[in-house]
Write a structure and sequence with these properties.
Distance between the termini: 48 Å
Largest sheet: none
Radius of gyration: 17 Å
Structural class: mainly alpha
Number of helices: 9
Bound molecules: fe (ii) ion
Order of helices and strands: HHHHHHHHH
Length: about 200
């Protein structure tokens, strides 16, 4: 069964921020966003995209200078053929993956829209803070705690305004408030982040 095969494949990569639990949260949240808008979505395409959308950011698949969404989409195609995923749903999976990043053109299908919102929401709130702190010293762009906190501040300011659906905007406000409260407490406890 393709679902089990994909879960086993992605389960091997226990990255603290882009591992299988990120995939599962994004999938569940994307379904919830669709439900709250009363729209039907292709769950197979969403699940396949959830498992594979960030695989191009993981070792050994990442490639210097290649956008991780592009890399993931190419790998997803190979992987999905291999596990016996329904071929007619492949274009939708690739669209969801290609359009999930901030730099990509805004998505048009409902699946890609709820997926992007769900992925952005996983960078907000307590989980967003946890995921960024988890990669300090692991990813090049978060070499130390100070850089990670700056990234949290940036995400907190920028991402809520990029959410597309009404339910995601609602959740985004709650998660933004969680982040702001964390940042305010941290600032108080570290002499305005000077003593981090
Ligand atoms: Fe991603
Ligand atoms: Fe992601």
């Amino acid at each position: 069964m393709w679902r089990q095969k994909l879960a086993t494949f992605i389960g091997q990569y226990d990255h603290p921020s882009w591992g299988i639990t990120h995939s599962e949260r994004v999938y569940e949240l994307a379904l919830e966003l669709a439900k709250q808008q009363d729209v039907d979505v292709d769950k197979d395409a969403l699940l396949a995209a959830a498992y594979l959308h960030d695989v191009g950011a993981l070792e050994p698949y990442r490639q210097e200078g290649v956008d991780h969404a592009e890399r993931s989409a190419a790998l997803a195609e190979e992987m999905l053929i291999y596990v016996g995923f329904p071929p007619k749903k492949m274009p939708l999976v690739k669209e969801i993956i290609m359009r999930h990043t901030v730099s990509a053109a805004p998505p048009t299908s409902i699946e890609a829209i709820v997926f992007r919102d769900a992925d952005f929401l996983d960078f907000l709130g307590a989980i967003g803070v946890a995921r960024i702190l988890a990669i300090v010293g692991i990813e090049d762009w978060t070499p130390d705690l100070k850089t990670a906190i700056s990234l949290i501040q940036r995400r907190c300011q920028e991402l809520p305004g990029k959410l597309l659906t009404r339910p995601a905007k609602r959740i985004g406000k709650v998660r933004q408030a969680e982040m702001l409260s964390f940042l305010a407490a941290l600032s108080n406890e570290t002499d305005k982040l000077e003593n981090l």
